[in-house]
Every structure is written in structure tokens, then in C-alpha cells.
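Step 1: inspect the first sequence and its C-alpha cells.
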Amino acid sequence: MSQDVISKFGKGLDSYLTKEQIKEQSPLVFATAPTNPDVSGKYLFVNTETIIDDLAKLNWFPVTAAQRKGRGDSTIFSKHMVSFQNPDIKITSSDGDDAFPRIILTNSHDGMQAFKFSVGIFRLVCSNGLVIADEKFSDFKIKHKGYSFEELRNVVRQAVEDLPSRVEVMNDMRDRILTPEEKNKLALDALLIRAGVKTLEYDQETINDILEPKRSEDKGEDLWTVFNVIQEKIINGDFHAALKGAKVRKVRKIKSFEKDIQVNKDLFKLATSLI
């Protein structure tokens, strides 16, 4: 079984997002004042652009951005997300399943939420973004009451120092071989997570579609491989699903970045419970 290692090297993605590109995808990143006029007097406004600039000093650069769609002129719908990669940090594997760690920042300028951080893994083989369920790190917040560059540096340091344990989990998942029954249950439970319900009966053809790899590189019976096949389809859609006795429908990609992150975390918890 291949052993993943965290390596340093000189190149990352061919390009990162410019501020102009971020502004097109998530204008709220560049808000210059709180979007909620009723914020507390203790609220210290720190726009997300400042975090982008400070993370760049730590060699982490933006690769994706999105924001919640608003309803009319309401300012409460102002949550947004930017994810970052470091071109010098990569998780390499002898079987070619290389990946980049990501730091995912979510923020809101409505005075109701703090900066929140999550850890992600970007697999090069399928350009697949996976958000790791890590309660300790995802609960790490920087409140709008005393932001400092040193505090941000500590967040990044914590994320990087924890990478070996993430690699260990990935390897444990590779060592866990699933039975056909376990694969079917994992696929069904993943469908339930996406639907946001505890019980539904999908037909076997739907389960088979979820478990069918799109690439030869993703064929295998180990938990890591099967999980990534399922995760990619659950997040990106492009498969057909039907409840028993119901009409078949095509499932589309999850468009909300908030649902994407939450479903990813729930899927990861589901998969790692089988180790």
C-alpha cells in the first residue's frame, strides 16, 4: 500500500485567483464596512481582503471563492467563502494520487459571525475538493473583536502541523477493504446525507450508479477509493437517482458553498466511522 507524505516543492496550480476574479465571484469579500448597521460597538470590522493579503504573506493563495445568494436587499445573506492553497505543500503518493491541502475560510460582514476555518484536500487526479471533518480546527474562529496577523499565523500553523494526522487517516482508509454490503450501505447513507433525511429507500440501480467510478484510477475496494468515488458524485451530481417505485431523476451539482462544506464534512465522518 502506498504511503502518502507531505512534501515541499516549487509549483502548485498553474494560476491562482486574482482579486479581480474574486470580486466577480464574491463581491462581499471586498466590503468596506459592516453590512448590518445594527452591529455592536465592540465589533471590529476586518474585511476578508485583509485575510487574503495576510495569508499571502504566509504563502497561501486563493483558488476558489463564492458567496451566499441574497434575497432582495437583505444584508443578512452575506456569508462568503475563499479557499487557499500553498504551492510549496503537497501530499504525494507513490500511486499518483497526489493532493494539495487547502484552508477554507468562511466569513460574514453582518456582525453575526466570526471568521471560521476548515481543512480541505484537493485531489489532482480528479480535481476533487474534499472538506475534512475536523471539529477542533473547524471550530477555530477569529472574532471581529481583536484580529491580529499573529492569530492568523497560529491558525495556519495549526493546520499545517495537523497534516500528518490527516495523512495517517487517509492511509488507514486505504488499508480498510469494504465488503459489497458495506459499499452499498456507504452509498445509501451518503445519499441520505445529501437529501438531509434519515430514511429513504433508493433502488439498487441508483446505488450502483453512485458506486461506479468515472476513471480507471478510482477502481478499488478500499475505503479511501470507494469514498472518493461516492463523494465526487454526491457533491458534483451528474448521476441518476430513484426511490423504489418512483421516477428516475438526474441529480445536479450542489451549488451552495455552505451545503457543499457541510455535506463534505458529514460524508467524511461517515467514511471514517468505518476505519
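Step 2: inspect the second sequence and its C-alpha cells, then contrast the two.
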Amino acid sequence: MAALREAAAPTVGHVSRRITVAASILLLIGVVLVALGLFAGGSTNATLFKLGAGTVLTFMGVALLSPYLVGPMSSAIGWPIERFAGFPGRLARENATRQPGRTAATAAALMIGVALVTFASVFAAGASATIDSAVKDNFKGAFVVSNVDGFSPFSAQVLKGVSTVDGVQTVSALRFSKAKVKGVSGDTSVSGIDAATLPRLYSIKVEKGPQNAIQQLGSTEGVVVKKGFADDHNVKVGQTLALTTPTRQVLRLPVIGVVKDDGGLVADISVPLPLVQKSFGERKDAFGLVGITPGADQKVVQKRIDALFKAKFPEGDVKTAQQFIDDQTAQINQVLALIYALLSLAVIISLFGIVNTLVLSISERTREIGMLRAVGTSRRQVRRIVRWEAVITALIGGIIGCVVGLGLSVLFIQPLDGFKLSIPFGQLIVLIVLAGAAGVLAAVWPARRAAKLDVLEALAYE
């Protein structure tokens, strides 16, 4: 074939040295920023900024250096394809490595889409695992009461009614508001808790201050703050915080303790429940935790509460711990499905990139394809060459994107206090397989076009 060609040898693309140097610098700066974010300490916002900037620069560096990965990855991916497909698989692998810059650029669009899908999948899996762990490890009650829509507040009479149900022993209400804290920009989330009943139904670890800091809120108008808020704003136990409430009242409250809430139930600042009603104007409950009498049948008590809600409080909804976990997970999955739908547009666009590259490659290799047909290559084999080349290109983008997205998610999740890392390996494998299938889909038209080339016209093509 080489002897029949007028050109001395097929052209092979090279990576610009300037691009290589720039990519190496970007990668180095990105790695340094990521290291500073992970190990240098500082506030959560500063850490996330360093990790975010470092991750973006690292991603750009990897994308620009990806042509160097094309050869090794094409060999690794193409080896089993060559064993399976034979001659078409070998030519497909060689064609993918002929222009590494073009192959990398084509795979880059798919790489970005797969990286974002991977990040969303890992983050959603981590959120589900965090909720599951938080409820099972920290919730000591039997039921969670909420609005039927899952997020709106409900009348305080609902939990008062629940407390009268036979078999219910303890009910603890939570309310949420916001305040402006002197020295802190923006609004700060505030939760109102029942200091007498919450510790019986939900575990909150006191990091600094007296171990009964939560209970002290029942007798003292003070606040407890979450560890993340205390670290970000250098808040100490005994310090007085000046809070401006939504009703324009200015409260000066001492910090009784610093707590760590792995379940994320309470806000950055927690105050006594009566204070939220009196000074913040919050008269509706956001959630209610319910504990039952020892020995009571949980299913029977839940049916009684359901009957109460149907008769008097249709806005109320009661769930067991597992039902609450399943409900929150379903909401996460709904958001994830929306994200997948949006990201699918990026994947579709990347398929057009693969189509364009294949068409250009076929145009450049018209005489080569004509000679292949002249020496006995069938149209079916030509189609298979183009298909396998598309699969190799798509798998390169899918694998690099999966690795980058996984690294991105790990880096962002690591500094989040109490957030658990959960990697859905099954979903990631399916994602890579779908990337290969996308390559097959993108190759349908170019493969048919290559197979239909007239042999004589192709050989005479200049």
C-alpha cells in the first residue's frame, strides 16, 4: 500500500512545544493549588476556592496534554479490539494514533461531558450515603414529621396534636430562619431547637464548651454554633454574637458551645425555640422528631398519627427513618435526572465532533480507502474500520473524562465536613460502555460514506 502511494509516508501529527510547555505550567499550578487547598488549612470558602481553581487548571492541563495519552491509550484500548476484530481493528487503532492532536481534540468534548456526569454521579451517591448514615447514626427517634411537600413549614398545632397520640412519648420541633451577624457578610442560617427534647431524639456532638451545651439553651438565651461556621469566622466559646433578626431586633447572645452535626439537621447558629418565635417571627415548624413509648408498636403508632393528619392536619406527613431516607434519596435522584438530561446535550454535541473528524479523516484517506478496496477489502470491513476508530476515540474521551470527573468529585467532597464519599463503580462502568456505544452511533453515517466510495474514483482522487 505504501509503495502504491505517491506520498513517501502518511502524515503524523505532532504536538506543539509551546502548547506542551503551557499545559505543563497550568498542570503544575493546578496541582499546587489543590495541594494548598487540601493541606494548608484555612476557612471552608478559601479551601473550596483553591480546590476549584486548582481543579480547573489541572483539567485544562490534562486536556492540553491529552495528545500524549492518545498513543498509549489507543494501544491499550485497541489491543483487545484488534484481537476481536482482526484486520479492521488494527487499522482502526493505527488511524486513531495517526493524528494524536486531532483525536485528542475530538475526544475532549466527550471527555468534558463524561467528567461532569461522573462528578454529578459521585456527588449524588455521596449525598445519599451521607443522608443514610446521618439518619441511622444520629436519629434516635421513631418518626420524622414534615409537610406533605417535603420542605414547606407547617402549623405548630400539628406537632401538638402528635404529642397527644397514644404511644407517642417525645416530640421535638425545629424551626429555621436567618439573621445578619455582625462581622459576617450575607445572611446566616439560624435554627430554633427544643433544648429539652432534641438531645433525646437526635445526637449532636459538642466539640467545644460544656457537654450539656444544648440543654443549657433551655435555661439561657444563648447560641450554639456549628464547627464550620466557628472555624470560618473565628468564633470562640464565651464570645458574644450580635444578631439582627428578620423583625429588625438586635440580639446580643453568648456562644455556649461549638457543635458538630454530621446529619446537617441544625443550621450554622442554633437558638432556643421560644426565641425564634418571639424575636425572629417564625411561628411554623419545619420538622418534627417523634419518639415513641418503649414497647409500643411502631406501625400501630404511625397509623394513629396518619389518621390524625387525615382528620385534622392534611398538611402533615409522618415517615419512619427509612422512609425519610428513601424520600430524600428520591429527591436527589430527581435532581440528578435533570442534570443528566442537561449534560446529555453536551454528549450529543461531542458526537457531532466525532462525526466531523471521521468525515475529515475519510476525505484525507480517500485514495487509501480506494487502495484497500482494490486489494480485496470488503465494504463491510471498511465500515468496521471506521466504527472501531470511532469507538477507540470515544473510549479515550470516556476513560479520561471518568478519571478527571472522579478526581474532581473527590477533591470537592474532601473538605465538606461530614460528607461521605461514595463511588458508584457500577454507574461509572456503564458510563464508559455508553461512551463506546456513542462512538458506534457517531460512526454510522461516516462508515456508510466510506464504504460507498467508488474504487476507481478513489484511486484517482487528488
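Step 3: confirm your contrast with the notes below.
Residues 153-314 form one domain. Residues 1-12 have pLDDT under 50 and may be disordered.
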